[in-house]
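Aim 2 progress. For Iron-binding protein IscA, the working sequence is reproduced below.
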Amino acid sequence: MIEMTERAAQHVRDFLDNRGKGEGIRVGIRTAGCSGLAYVLEFVDTPDENDTRYESRDVSIFIDPKSLVYLDGLLMDYEKEGLNEGFKFSNPNQKGECGCGESFTV
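Predicted structure tokens for this construct:
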């Protein structure tokens, strides 16, 4: 299961409304950073037939098959701290992260 807080869901809904199109957001991982993995987010206009689709707070979240094993149980939040803002991920599969917080290990 993949979930979003209301703040994260509202942020995605606002972006989709401003774009004027889109079915939801795709969350995945890629190899990057000093710890090995990084989160990747992109808007989905046409879902891939292999994606797993979750619904959280009226937002469709799409996960590709390779990423699903690393993201099962993920909770996404959206935070503003001073001039910084962005998605925050609470991943029960995560074992560690790099010092800058840009990448993680499972």
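The chain has a mean pLDDT of 86. This observation will guide construct design in the next reporting period.
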